[in-house]
């Protein structure tokens, strides 16, 4: 009885937050972030992961064709940037909430002239690569291992060239910066596409968690102290998965969501274990729940201002997910009313709502644990 009452209270609080300017008011929050651009809440943001946070690295890889419109149609000046979105992505909106104009630039786009702030320990860089996974065997783009190697090279250059106070100042700046990681979804997709048996799930989780541990330890060894982790969204709800399964005709594919949810539970336990082990003094973290955000938006579309939470805005065929979002594809005009931009990725509107949810909603709402990103930055 008490548990049911508690859940009702949380639901009421959540709806009140959405309606009164929390997630739905996040445009104003982002604008406020732009206004205080010179008052950054952290010295820099370093971004790692997959297409949910990639801002253009893949466009600099050999054989990778640059994105074309309508990707980027809602980005300033309507131009494709390498983001898997109609505009900004979640890395941009988290950076905005920290006082930056947008995500730091794609690492592979930097030149000696454009990397001056990075070398001084400010603003940061985005190493994320669409298609990557926690496992090095996932995807054919920049693995998470490679992304961290690029950061190690960055730090080496910072120590040589940056900061008037030398290496101690760089270490101090890194300890105050946010290390944002959003990865794991492609590992789930690979498991599903390969039709692997349910009996393989425990060893699959163990493999990913072992690699995640290695990545966190590597970043810690390079100076990271504040970790903002985004877990895996409900992959059974994305249009490209729904459209391939009879189960997805009337809703999300439960088996795919179960796979993601089980991993997310294990990821939270892993981060707590690492923080409590005593092996990483000064480490702090928050796990933002992309899973809970998308699940809530899917179950309560009207409260979030969405009219379509099943179809892709851009694409073709059933659910607009049977063909890709290409220059010849059809796309919706009311993009702020769609949860999904293409068959896999959220719209700019979804990224905005998600960023605010993990950043500032009270922890009891379930969008971040054990603290939210705002508390992480204040810690």
From TrEMBL:
Pfam families to which the protein is assigned, alphabetical: Lipase_GDSL
A single BP term in Gene Ontology: lipid catabolic process
Protein keywords: Hydrolase, Lipid degradation, Lipid metabolism, Signal
Signal peptide: 1-25
InterPro entries: GDSL (IPR001087), GDSL_Est/Lipase (IPR051058), SGNH_plant_lipase-like (IPR035669)
GO molecular function, one term: hydrolase activity, acting on ester bonds
Keyword Methyltransferase: no
Protein name as catalogued: GDSL esterase/lipase
Organism: Zizania palustris
